[in-house]
Amino acid sequence: xxxxxxxxxxxxxxxxHTCADCASHDWCLPAGxxxxxxxLLDHLNVHTRFxxxxxxxxxxxxxFHSLYAIRSGFVKSTMTLDDGRERVTGxxxxxxxxxxxxxxxxxxMCDAVALEDSSVCAIPxxxxxxxxxxxxxxxxxxxxxxxxxxAHDYGVMLLLGSMRAEERVAVFLVSLSKRYxxxxxxxxxxxxxxxxxxxxxxxxxxxxxxxRVLSRFQENQLITVQHKDxxxxxxxxxxxxxxxxxxxxxxxxxxxxxxxxAAPAPVQPAMQYT
Amino acid sequence: xxxxxxxxxxxxxxxxHTCADCASHDWCLPAGxxxxxxxLLDHLNVHTRFxxxxxxxxxxxxxFHSLYAIRSGFVKSTMTLDDGRERVTGxxxxxxxxxxxxxxxxxxMCDAVALEDSSVCAIPxxxxxxxxxxxxxxxxxxxxxxxxxxAHDYGVMLLLGSMRAEERVAVFLVSLSKRYxxxxxxxxxxxxxxxxxxxxxxxxxxxxxxxRVLSRFQENQLITVQHKDxxxxxxxxxxxxxxxxxxxxxxxxxxxxxxxxAAPAPVQPAMQYT
DNA sequence: CGCGCTGTTGACTTAACTCAATAGTAGTGG
DNA sequence: CCACTACTATTGAGTTAAGTCAACAGCGCG
Lengths: 274, 274
What we know:
Helix content of chain A is 35%, strand content 21%. The first copy, chain A, is of the alpha+beta class.
């Protein structure tokens, strides 16, 4: 028994936490909650947990009780196939809500693992369902969050089903860039945090292909890359290589629609439905 | 101006429809609604629409107001990329709910098109949200339905990211077989309804590849195929070729998990969460 | 009947995979 | 501190599954 696991699995007892006076409130919860509604949030037994790099937030097959809001850090979710191979199905950053795939069956489908030291809030889903009944704006927020996940998945399906390796990696880099930028980090200096194999697993490519594409991007002055540190040199050109030039003979477009990997962002644009 | 469009777009004015006494009630709505709850359903302005083969249920980019429950028929959803290529992102049968990807942005991301004469119920989402506040079992049903969609999408991502052509087609056939069987149709005689190109689009393959794989399956006595009619001769073997034999050297599995395309089924297993 | 659409099949090309050798990095322990 | 091992990344050479291009066959429909 060595100390490694103590680092991975936070032994600290989880903190009882009220959303109403949480520092992350602004970007974690829907804006415009009144005082009365904010008070209803106190009924939620939200617990904050710190998870070290490599530590797991939940494991595939275990019973589902809570969604997890990521307060800080970077999390991957992975699924393990029958034959033992692991595939990365999602990458998640602060402000995102994970675990929604588990609502239906009552057990998590994925492993969620921190790729850097992270903190997450466990939100008991049963309680959340109750509270949303009394806070329509929160109810809508939940529905939109789930909807956004679905829409995002369609984007990934498009990527996996019809893009070539270079495009996939370009989309991946641009997506990371956007998401970091949205959180106030540099849009051009990004830390991959994932190994080549994990990137490949996420993009449906082999690790050698990922490595080669990154090298080629560097040759072409699109980026500089050293291990997990990437500096984007030409974001424009990187952006342009997404969606176009699959093959040469294309008919005119009918209803243009940009497929993005841009992930579940915390900020939600205004909308309405009847 | 010819008559084709009259066939495609049903000119019949939609029917006002109450869920409480709908013939499809049993498999469309959650079981166990009390009389009082059933009465609340009357507040929903559900309209039934008949859509001919080739007709569209909603179009990408138009404003989102309603989810659509499929009462009968077979529906594809497609997305059109910037460059004009179309990709099939979903296939839907009776009892399934479509349009959930639109909740977030307020406009549909996909085109939903009937592949055979179909009937659908338009459920105004704003009203649905209201009603679910008073009917917890319905609320949970909605959440589970969205969750099931997310989980299903993960399965598709696995398929597109890591399966070879033969496996993809096998998964496709097995999935159709299961879904038809669940609805009381034959599990072995299935009508594809899709052209080779559409199957390929759904599976991330070219139409020629789909055609070749089907021919090979026929050579190997797995199926007989003629145009869009497929008879499954060896469902067992078809099932076994899913998930295994990607390549030869595999480590032992850790947390087996079967990736399925088996779609959003109307029946929901019992579960609980705190 | 002839036209257009859909599907099949063959020959060839290619993007990505596989295998393998090597180099760089990080972590471990003496 | 450095040597040692693990792991991770890069790169090259050869292979292959799927894509591309093209010819043709079958079917349905006006």
